[in-house]
Structures are given as C-alpha cells and as structure tokens.
From TrEMBL:
Integrase SAM-like N-terminal domain span: 54-136
Keywords for this protein: DNA recombination, DNA-binding
InterPro entries per UniProt: DNA_brk_join_enz (IPR011010), Integrase-like_cat_sf (IPR013762), Integrase_recombinase_N (IPR010998), Integrase_SAM-like_N (IPR004107), Tyrosine_recombinase_XerCD (IPR050090)
Domain of life: Bacteria
Organism: Phytohabitans aurantiacus
Protein name per its UniProtKB record: Integrase SAM-like N-terminal domain-containing protein
Amino acid sequence: MHLFFADVQKVHRVGGVPGLNAAELPGMFARSAPAAGMPVLLSESMWPVEPLCSWFRELSLNRRSVKTMRAYAYTALMLLRFLRARGLDLASATEQDVLEFRRWRLDDAEETVSEAAWDRDAAAVGCLYDFLVRQGVVERRPWRSKRRQQRSLSSGTRRDLRVRHMELDQYLYLRDVGFGGLAADGGLDERFRGWRPHRNRASCELALLTGMRVQEWSTLLLIELGLLDERRPRAVDVELGACAKFGHPRSVYVPADAMNLLEGYLLLERPDIVAKAQDTLRRAHRELFVVTRLEADGAKVRGVLDGHTVTRSVRGMDPQLRRIAVRETGDGLDPLALFIGAGGRMLTASGWDRVRWTAWERMTARATGSTAVVLPRRCWVYHDLRHTFALRLLIYLTRQALDDGRRQQAPMSTLLDHMSGNPLLQVQRRLGHASPATTYRYIRYLKDPMREVEEAFRAWTAAGGANYADIARHLLALEVDDAAPR
C-alpha cells in the first residue's frame, strides 16, 4: 500500500496532468480537486483502498487540519497492516485484536511510543470506527467502554500540565545570545555567523509578550499587524482565526515593545530576503496566491489562486494559504507573511525548530564562567515563552488585585469588580483556554517550591552546622571509646 497526500501545487510544479493542457487544469480542480493535505491510500495496483479513502474524504470535508489528517492516516495505515498480517481487516477485527495492536504499539514495535502518543493513536482509531459504524460496515466499535467518557482503548493516564517558564536573565540570554547572536555580556560578538538575528529576536519577543502559540505567531501576516500602512501602529490587536488552536477565534494584544523590535527586522533584514527571493518567487508564480487588492480595510484579500480570481477572509486563511500568499507591488512579489526565510516563503515548523536548536547550541557553548545563567537540562521550546507570559501576567494581575483591595480597605468590593478583575479569568481569555481548569494549573507555579524547600531545611544542612561526615566521625569515635578496655 502507498500513502499519498493531496497537493495541487505539486501538479503545477511537475507540469500538469497527462491528457490535460494547462488551461483545463483550473476547471478540473474547481470541480473535483481534493482538499490540500488530504490523505489518499492506494493499493499495489494503484486502486483506492476502501473504506479508508472515504474516511479521509470525510475528514477533509469536516475541515480537519492537515496535521491531524496526516497523523490519523499513518495510524490507520499501521492498524490496517497489523490486522492484515493476522489475516483480518477493519470489519472483522475484534476487541482482542485492537487491544493487541495497542500492546504492540506500546511494547513490541520496533519503535514504541509513549502513552501520550498512544492516546493520540486511540483517538484516530476511535474516529475511524465511528465512521465505519455510520457507514454500516460494522455494528459498533470492537471495544467496550469502561465508563462514561472513557474508552478502554485509551491509556487512562491523566497527564499534568508541564509548565517550564523562564526568569528574566534566562529570557534575555535566550533572546540576545541564542537568537540574536550577541555576546554573553550583551556586546557585539564578531564571531557570530548566524542567519537573520533581527528576525529571530523579534519572533522571540513577540512570542513572549503576546502568549501566542508557535503556530499562531509564526503564521502572522503583515496586514494583520498593520505593517502595510504608511503609518505603522505602536500597538495592535490581532484577531486570530484559522491559525489558532482548533480554529477557536480570539483577540491577541501586541504591545509596543514587540512592535519596536520588529522594526529592525522589517528595515534591515526582510527587504534583503525578499530581494534575493524574487527569482524563486517568479518561477513559482503559478503556485502562489497573488493578492491584487485589499478589501474591507484589510479584513479580506482578493487575488488569483490556481488560475481563479478569489476573495478570502484574512482570519479564515489557513497556514498553507498564508505561506503562498504574495502581493504584487510593481517592483516584484512581496510575501504577505511577517516572518520569512530563504525563497521568500513563510518558515515551516521544521524551519523554526532549526532556528531553536541552533540557538540552543550557541547558548550551551557560551554558558561557562561566573556570568552564565542557569540553563535547563533540555532545550527550551517556544511554548516555554507562552508559559512565561502566563505566569508573569498572572502574578502581576494577582498583586494588582490585592493592592486594589487594600486601597479600598475591603477584601472584596463588589461582585462585579471581583468577576471582571479576576486574574485567572483574564489570563484564560488572553491564552485562549477553552476551560478555566487549564488556567488553574498555573497557580501551583506562582511560587518556586524548590526555593521554599531550601529555606525550610537550610538550618538542617551542612551550612547550618555539622554535616553527615562530622556526625559519622563523632559516632565512630564514641564506638571506639566504648570498645576500649577499662
């Protein structure tokens, strides 16, 4: 079996479809083209493998993300191969067979997975069998429910929120030394040969001061920050849509400090990247979404996509469309993406990972001497900046609420003031958490428990008196004295 993923742009790159000329392609794609990233599973004789192909089609029609469809497709393919090796198929599999597949993935496969990864596989298998039930292929799921809202296929392990935040010195070291290429003392490092430090520092600052997830800030467009206007705003509210987690819309405030750090990148680095990418962009002209006009005060864009003139809402543009969106300026093609890499395209997740690991290697190589900051055992991830934003904002709002209560000389003024000024609710709204329970988990990190442990036992340690060696020598001396003849 062979697994493929739909890519209309690749058709243009390879020169079209046999039997069709270039003029006929847009019409064919408008009638029957699959959604971008939709999986297609073919047999050895290149026939669609059912019912999986129909399930993939339903996933795309339900607007599942490309990332989700890809993960589900690989899980379904592994399950199908596992069952076929036993002489079974999806319709004839029993509960024992599916549970054996779970055991194989967790314990016996060449590359086993963690329980967290298996739970994602279990979600894919559950979604597949729900589809098979609706289609009448099977009467019910092969496995039984343990209790309401829990399936016996999942691990049943409840994982705690992993929060790793930064102190100020750690953040500055990350931003300026790791991403920015400066020396550890903040001066210019003449040995630095990195690429686009202004872009990388600006992205780091934007992630920290907004609390956005990496898939949110890395896919921002210039138009969303008002950076196509002649007079650029000092601060701006951004309405997130298709690029937010699960597509849940929310508003994000980008403060002036983040906008200021973007200036160096926009003035010094981005024009150079765009200029060097013109030949690449021109060659890929047919694959791009060439925007010709901004509409509704920048809320919509109009341009040519796959040979058709279309209008798209900016908030509704997914990352794939944002990555190929360019603007015809008369002097060339200018990508609409804020952060771009070589070739003028928006950086992918793997591209930002390379930036992060390069920064980490630089940080660890220079983390020597008395001025070095304390680095974690494992590499920082971009989500740590979001955790730092959440904790710092929660601490600030909590202290502000306490100060307001003291000034009013009352533990609580009115119920309305308490509800509107609740720090947890404000942080929940800023982070876009669907449930307050997710935000509540940050409370335990408001104080560093390790520092409290050190203070609680400071008098018990060697610094406060005798250490273990002293005590041992004293006891040994007593035993020797007791054993001596009298």
